[in-house]
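Lab meeting tomorrow. Please check the following:
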Amino acid sequence: MTWILGWPLSFLAFVKTQLVLLLLRVLSAGPIPRHVAFEMDGNRRFARLTGRRAVEGHSDGFHTLQQILEICMRLNIRCVTVYAFAIENFNRPPDEVGALMKLAEERLVEIAQNGALLSQYGVRLNVLGHRELLPAHVQVAIEKAEGMTRQNNRAILNVCAPYASRHEITSAVQSVVQQALDKENFDSSTITEQSIEENLMTTLGGSPPLDIFIRTSGVKRLSGFLQWQCCENTQIHMVDTYWPDFRPP
């Protein structure tokens, strides 16, 4: 058994866990944001830094997402939105895209089989984006995972994949215009900022307005993620840490 300052490491790890839980309980008593978004950037660079393949960095990133999601649920945050795969990511090397699709299917199947975290906290899963671009087997896994959580109403997890803000905004405008055309008397005044916002993908399941936007890896731009939602009331934070390392100390 390894000891530090006369204490076994297992005991110190237990104390650390309890202190983190205590801190979360204290924080949850104060003003809490309703909707937090994470642009999970830096998985590939983290993998290169540690001498491993890109897909291993993405796998590490998934485990970080699990930890961050549990923290958010303990803080009673209503909605978490994450950027999992951009439409332009299909331009990456075919072997990396294939590995990512396989990893996505495995994780979705895992959720559909047990979904312990989502079930424990009553989290509804929404996969948002240009889903018809995904392989058929991934689409099937998405439908199963979403169906398993559809009755959950305590919290929401929006996974954006494959996603781009321009596509989301364009789709919302098309929906609003079609709704106006479907009325007996066309009235262009019904096409407003509010009506477009109500047709954005992130409104699915009752997602509230975005309070906090966090991007990891030190890159200081939105890169096509939630560009409409990042309004004047959203706090935007760019942090240097790579996503797999973005976790409690």
Q: What stands out?
A: The chain is about 45% helix and 15% strand.
